[in-house]
Amino acid sequence: MIIFGTKSTPSVINTGEFNCPNCHDKRNYTLKRYKKHFHIFFIPLIPMDNLGDSLECQKCSSSYVPGSILTRDEYSPENPLGNNNSANYLGIFPSAFGTRLGAYVLDLILIYLLIVAATFLTSGLLTIFIGFIYFVCCDFIFKGSSIGKLILKIKISEIKEDNLPTATNIIIRNVVKGICGLFPPIYLVALSNEKLQTLHDKISNTIVISK
Ligand SMILES: [Zn+2]
Question: 68 CA to middle of ligand 1, Å?
Answer without folding.
Answer: 15
